[in-house]
Amino acid sequence: MIRRLLVRGLTRPRGPAPGRSAAPPPPDHPPLTGAEVDRAETELGVRFPSAYRSYLLDVSAGGPLHRLERGPDGWWWAGNQDTRRDLLPLPFPHPDSYVEADAALWERWPREEDFPDEAACRAARQAWNETEGDEFEDRKTAGAVVLRDNGCGFATLLALTGPLAGTVWWDGRATCGLIVPLSLDHPGGGAPLTFGQWRERGLGDLSDLLPPDWGRPAQF
Question: Of the candidates 14, 34, 164, 209, which lies 20 to 30 Å from 156 by C-alpha distance?
Fold first, then answer.
């Protein structure tokens, strides 16, 4: 409890002693222990990229990012309710790897002219979503977690598995159906930014890490 000093009928907090600075406030989500990180990795079936593991151990279990925590269902990230646990150990796929499959999938999208009425078309589209569309979309983010929601349906992803493990991505499917790398050099080919590089930049502003035609993110 803060001690108070009575001065002329007013109370005011007593500050730090002369020559001493106030202790910094504890992080909202304190770092995890090595044992906790080990248990999380074992339970989730993945090995965290070294830079992200260092962040969990030395900085915070969440902070400006979605928190890694142990809940009733085990270790998982807050804000990842729609992320499928069964797909987490699979390699995160580069978006270029499913371009042709994506095009072929949409060729099978039920079209109104192929059905006798609107109800039949709507039923066919619902079945398409359940059997093909949703599963395909889920697999686009296999091996990745949402580190931060950026508003308007956008999200920042961290790839945990496969050749792209440790890189950071922008999920923009809410507007254009694309997942693109956060990168310092989109004109030069857009090599994905690593989590370590993003951490060095303060885990903040994404506006210069997106393709030039993307515009400014809704939130940081």
Answer: 34
pLDDT: is 156 or 129 the higher one?
A: 156
Distance separating alpha carbons of residues 117 and 92, to the nearest angstrom: 40
**Using CA atoms, how far apart are residues 220 and 206, in angstroms rounded to an integer?**
7
CA distance 140 to 67: 22
DSSP notation for the chain: ---EEEETTEEEE--PPTT-PPPPPPPSSPPPPHHHHHHHHHHHT----HHHHHHHHHT-SSTTSPPEEEETTEEEETT-TTS-GGGTTSPPPPGGGGHHHHHHHHHTS--GGGSSSHHHHHHHHHHHIIIIIHHHHHHTTTTEEEEEEEETTEEEEEE-SSTTTTBEEEEETTTTSEEEE--S-TTTT-PPPBHHHHHHTTS---TTTS-TTS---S--
Tokens describing residue 162: 């496969």
Q: Which residue has the tokens 């359940």?
A: 130
**Polymer length in residues for the chain:** 220
Q: Which amino acid is at 190?
A: G
Question: Using one digit for the tens of pLDDT, what is the confidence trace for 38-76?
Answer: 999 999 999 999 999 999 999 999 999 999 999 999 999
